[in-house]
Each structure stands twice: as C-alpha cells, then as structure tokens.
Amino acid sequence: MTERTLVKNLAALEDGLVTVSGWVETVRDQKKVQFVVLRDESGAVQLVNPRTDDTEAVAEIISGLAQGSFVTATGELKHDERVKLGGIEVKLATLVVETAAIAETPIAADSGIDKRMDWRFLDLRRPEQNLVFRVQTTLEHAWRTYWVEHDFIEIHTPKLMASASESRAELFEVDYFDTKAYLSQSPQFFKQMAQPAGFGKVFEVGPAFRADPSFTSRHATEFTSVDAEISWIDSHEDVMQLHEELMVAGFKAVKEKHGDEIKALFDVDIEVPTQPFPRIPLAEAKEIVASRGYVVPREDDDMDPEGERQIAAYVKETYGHDFVFLTDYAASIRPFYHMRNAADETITNSYDLVYNGVEISTGAQREHRIDVLVEQAKQKGLDPEELEFYLDFFRYGVPPHGGFGMGLSRVLMLMLHQTNLREVVYLFRGPTRLTP
Amino acid sequence: MTERTLVKNLAALEDGLVTVSGWVETVRDQKKVQFVVLRDESGAVQLVNPRTDDTEAVAEIISGLAQGSFVTATGELKHDERVKLGGIEVKLATLVVETAAIAETPIAADSGIDKRMDWRFLDLRRPEQNLVFRVQTTLEHAWRTYWVEHDFIEIHTPKLMASASESRAELFEVDYFDTKAYLSQSPQFFKQMAQPAGFGKVFEVGPAFRADPSFTSRHATEFTSVDAEISWIDSHEDVMQLHEELMVAGFKAVKEKHGDEIKALFDVDIEVPTQPFPRIPLAEAKEIVASRGYVVPREDDDMDPEGERQIAAYVKETYGHDFVFLTDYAASIRPFYHMRNAADETITNSYDLVYNGVEISTGAQREHRIDVLVEQAKQKGLDPEELEFYLDFFRYGVPPHGGFGMGLSRVLMLMLHQTNLREVVYLFRGPTRLTP
C-alpha cells in the first residue's frame, strides 16, 4: 500500500514529514507561491509550494495540474492557525501525479441533478456525498449488530422468482433459459418461509425491484430493502417494538459517529428518537388531519403524501416526535397476507412508519392460518393455484409471525433533510436511468 | 411476544415452571406415558405426559398431534440425567397447538437433494441446516465488522445495468420499459467507480446473476457475492493481505461461536488459518501438479478443478495450510481490466484464492491508466464504445486500486465439508430451479 496519512489524522501529528494521497480539489498558481487543496476520503488539506529555484520541479507539475487528478504528496506538515483549512498545511517536497484528469470537468457545483447523475462518480467526490455513504455504513452496521446480538439469522432470498411476490402490475420480466422469471419486488414470501423453517428471527438487506413508471423524487425502480421477520408475536405491536428499538440503535450510532459532521455539512441535528414512538390508528389520523383542514382526496381508505405530512406535523407539535406509527390500516388497502383484527375484520394488524412526514416502512402481523389466508387471497381476486408454493409454507406448521420492510434510502434522505432520493443513492435507477 | 424460554437456555434454569414454543419433531404415544420432542431454533427438548385421569386433556392433544405442528408447551422443567436429550425434560401442564401440520410429511431424512429443494422450508428445519445459516450470519458479521473498523464504506451497486459487466455470454436480459436491461454478473464496474469517487475502501455483499446453463454442484444462476475494492495499492499483494486478514477474522468468529456445534453436527474442526497464506504463481503451480503426475488437460493457460485439488493437496502436505493464493494468471485468461505485470505483460497482477481444493475468489490489481485500459479492451475484442460509461471513470483522475469478489456459499460449503452448494444456499437457483 502507498504509505499515506489520512488527511483527518494530520492535525493530531506534530510538525514533520508526511505523505498524503488524494485528488486535487483546487489549484491557485500564483507567481510567488502555489497552493493546492488535496482531498481524500477523510478531508482536505492545503499543500503549499513557495516558488524558488529549488522548487521549480514541483512548481512545473502544479502549473500543469488539472483539477481532479489523483496525486501523492510528500512534504513538511506545519501547524499554522492562519491557515483557514484546519490550521495546517504541507510544504511540498515531492508531488507525484498518479493519474492526470482531463482538464475540463463536466459538472460544476450548480449542475442540475440529472447532469450530476450522468457524472455520479465525480458528484460523489463532494464531502456531503461522501458523508451520506459513511452514514449509510454506520446505520446498516448498527442495525445488523442489533440483529446479531438478538439472535437473528441473516438470509439472502433469491431475486429471481417464478411468479410475482406482490402485485403483477410492477413486475420486471426476465428471459430465463426456456422460460420467464420475474425480479423480486420484496423478499416478503421468502422471509416468511424462514418462519415455518424454524429460523425464529431473520433479517435481510438487499435489492428489490419495482417496474414503477413514476418519476417522483422518492421512487426508484431498484432500491435497497431492509427487512426483518420474527416468530411468536402476539400482534403487530411486537413488530413495532422491534422496529423502534432498531431505529434508536441506528440513530444513536449515527449521532455518535457523524453528528458533528452532519451538523457542519447538512445543518441537521440528529436526534435519537425516544421510545415508545407515538401510535395512531389510521382512521383517527385521518380525523386529526381533517380537523386541521385537510381532507385526504382519495376514494379508498388510504392516506396520501400531504396527509402524511399533516399527521407528522401534528405529532411533532403534540408529542415532539419525528416518528409516528400509523396503525390498523383498512383491509381493503392492504395485501392479502396481512392478518385482520380479531374484533373487526375490516382492519388489519398492520402499520406504516412515517418519519419526518414521509412513509419509510410497512409492517404487519401475517396471516398464518392457511384456510383464512386462502380466503383472503380469493377476496383480493388472486388465484390460489398461482400461490401454491407460498401457501405450502402454511400447511406443515408455522408459528404466528410478522415483520416489516423499510426503504434504506428513504431513511437516509429524511435523516439528512434531502428532498430527492437520488442524492442518497449510490447509483439511481429509474424508468429512463440505467447508466452509469 | 409469546413469553417463552429458548430450548438452549433451559439446562441452566432450576427446576420449575417453563414455557417453550417450537415444532413437534417426534411423538411417542404410549399407553402409560407420552413423549413429544419439541424443537425450536436453538435446540430440542423432551416433553413428557404420564397418562392419568388428570392429564387426559393433554393426552388427547398429543394423540392427535402431527409431526411438524407448531405448539406452545407449559410445564415443570426437571433435570434428570437419565434423559438422553440434554438431561432435562418438561412435564406438561398445558399444550396449545398453534398450527396443525398436514399429517404426511413430503420429505424424509433420506430424500434426495432435488426433492428436499422442493420442500426447502421443511429441509431447513434440520439442525444442520439451521446451523449453516447461523454460521453464515456470524461469518458475514465478522467480515463487515472488520470492514467497518477499517473505515470501509458499504455500497449497494445496482443490479440493473444497460450493458454487460463481464462477458456477454452469461447475461440475463430484462424487459425494462421501452428498452432492455441486463442483470449484473458482478459489481465489478460499480465498485471500481467508488475509486475515482474518492471513497478509498468499499465493500458490498449482494446478489449476482449468471445465465450459466451448467448443472455442477458448485454453480448457481444467482449467488451472493462478497466484494471489496481498495485504493492506493502497490500491487495485488495488498489485496491478498486484506483478503487473508478478512478470512482470519471470519474463521475466528465462527470457531469461537459455533466450533463445538460444527464438530458435533458436521464432524468438522474449524481451523483458523495462519498468516500469510501460501502464494504460488500459477505457472509454478502447474509444474508442481505435473510433477505429481497430473497434466491439466486444457489448451489455455488456466487450471482446472482437478488441478486445484492437486495443488491444494500439495499445499496441505507441504505447508499444512487449507488456503493457497494462485497468483500471476496469464493475461490470456483474465479480463481486460486486470493490470499486467510491469516486467512481463503476458501475466497479470491477479490471483485466485483456493480453499480446500476449490476456487472461492478472484482478485486483482485493476488497470487504472486509461490508454492501457482501452488497449487491453481492444485486445480482448471488446468495443470501447460500449464501455464508454466505464472508461469515463478513468478519465478524470483515479487512484491505483484493486479488489476481489468471493462466493459466500462456496466458502460455507467448503468450510462445512459439503459437496453441494445447494446444501448451504437458502433457496437455490439453477437453470431448471425457480421455485419455491
């Protein structure tokens, strides 16, 4: 490996010889002195080259240096509080250009989102973008650590399926040798399979695919789904308790590791949510929203995005909380496998989790009684024959169970107060976006 | 949640009232006394019901109990060393059948692999299978913990691509709105993208897809790929050092957490490999194999599976090691993006990692000099125009870098001395296998 010091570790060093590697963010090529700002994955530092006869070799390199080039620099680290960038600079001894960049950069700070997506690998060099993915790493690791410490089993369910896992409408079709396969819209059926398999508690973080032709700021045709499913629950309340514990574990880790940086780069204070999160039955939520003067303009029993924002505003005003579980969704707008409420079969043992006004997750107790499950499938107009492989899971013994699926990037988007999912996805996929 | 004690925790309790939940593994319905073996995700315990007038209600339930049914049992825990199954039993007070199984079980202990795949959710109830996925969980978590502690960033690269990432031959085609997309064969191009993006070090664990029509015991059309890619390497040696550290971290964690159980259920002693792993240039490996009397029957410069077994046997005899890096593969059999050796451009800065005689991974330094990269693509008969989005990654500055991709299930298969990948995959996908 190139023996280099990460920029973030320079400040703690005493003055002396150091080597840093990264890319050239800016060059100021003045007559008497040259400045280069070098950035690596951890931060930026100023390199300085006073022009004398002795430094002409380095000076020539700097004069020809294109922004974006990757270089390795060796020189004397000096602490100097007059230097705006972190109070340190490196007086260059040698500068090696590893790869020279094309002089013209295709995007600028003010480029539109679509242009930046075209050049995503350059866009990702921005410190804000780098931070997004370090936050993602910390968040996921906190969740997995929670799961592992609580005896969950990690599964990788297949993304190639012989039939639809949710609705046929948003299904991608794959040429599969002499037949057709479909891309999994969610690991729903297969994470449930772990329950009759006796796995107890399972989790998966993996891709899911929706052939959704819409162009909103919060939809993608491919997204990272965060899923858990647990046995022996009494109701969706048990799932919600797991869910809020996970969110707390994730937010704690992010605040601890990146709180200051998030404040500096996004002007956002990460708040670790308090438990329990507020829970409001959907019917009640709609009344609250109506009393605030907003009538949800839908013919079915569902909320709409403005309704979610309104109920979130109410919850924030009333409970000071960024999260709210909307519970007891009408059976009419939930999939056939959600368990109905024992006392009122028009509603389900289910919930949506709303964070900062946007839905990030759906959870539910699943119907595990085969006769009821078949009946509910028929009511939804599904053909039980097509679901045989799934229905078999319930015929040889299965514990009561439930779980949730959550969109990873939605959580990140809302946590960092971004308005577009594309800002927090490594490479976005949409109806007209397949490259890079 | 159902308040239950995991079976594995019973032995440490004092005699007294307990509740356990799980599925019925066996029933012995005798005249004077009934026995039920209940299993949960953590182990098995004997339930006993002496038949008296007082226990007739429970007796009737047991008499009607189908194997596989999920039940919750409450009763008096008793330590009794005469009980073969762990020296404990539970004298039943109540037994609640949560879901009754169909009486006839479609698979038996001696069912063939294909039949067992048809009923994978029942096959997974076997303690060996349960252990496979707990080992998988521990292995992955150890790897991710290593990465996180070493400042790697976790990425999720898209599985939908506009073009091939490796060879066109094994590509699945997807109907994508008005165009075609392809399923990613590996995250190769996109994990490399993180290098010009300045991410430094990245990892990903996710699905990869190969439209490979072969039916061997170690191939699948969908598999879980474990990938890492790091900046500022000097050669593939740096990648190998990372790779062996990761393997050691993973094996340590598995041995510590599951060593005894793996010994009991698979009769395998998990050995933590010593560092450094042996390294043998491929040309030398072929000579060694030839000197053992096996001439690799291939016209190209590659090894074959028998050659890998032979060199592994040699390494085991000579160095007592289960792993070997075969290095310096001929350029003729490596992809265009592998960097060539500076002194001999007929060989590459690349390696395969062989474990217990089977290849589990390919790693390499990547060619990051755009002119050389374009030239190598042309030499392989590729059209640079089709690769433009990838080649752009190298035009705006990029650090020297390299990495590896590894098959998760191959590692598990070889670690647990299994002969078929299907035994260690949650749900196998092959040319004729899309269900369940």
TrEMBL record, chains A, B:
Residues 133-436 form the Aminoacyl-transfer RNA synthetases class-II family profile domain. It is an enzyme of class 6 (ligase). Its EC number is 6.1.1.12. GO terms for molecular function: aspartate-tRNA(Asn) ligase activity. Residues 188-191 are annotated as: Aspartate. Keywords: Aminoacyl-tRNA synthetase, ATP-binding, Cytoplasm, Ligase, Nucleotide-binding, Protein biosynthesis. Coiled coil: none annotated. It holds the Pfam family tRNA_anti-codon. InterPro entries: Aa-tRNA-synt_II (IPR004364), aa-tRNA-synth_II (IPR006195), aa-tRNA-synth_II/BPL/LPL (IPR045864), Asp-tRNA_synthase_2 (IPR004523), Asp/Asn-tRNA-synth_IIb (IPR002312), NA-bd_OB-fold (IPR012340), NA-bd_OB_tRNA (IPR004365). It comes from the Bacteria. CDD domains: Asp_Lys_Asn_RS_N, AsxRS_core. L-aspartate binds at residues 166, 210, 362, 366. ATP binds at residues 359, 407-410. It is found in: Cytoplasm. It catalyses: tRNA(Asp) + L-aspartate + ATP = L-aspartyl-tRNA(Asp) + AMP + diphosphate. Homodimer. Belongs to the class-II aminoacyl-tRNA synthetase family. Type 2 subfamily. Catalyzes the attachment of L-aspartate to tRNA(Asp) in a two-step reaction: L-aspartate is first activated by ATP to form Asp-AMP and then transferred to the acceptor end of tRNA(Asp). This is Aspartate--tRNA ligase. The gene is aspS.
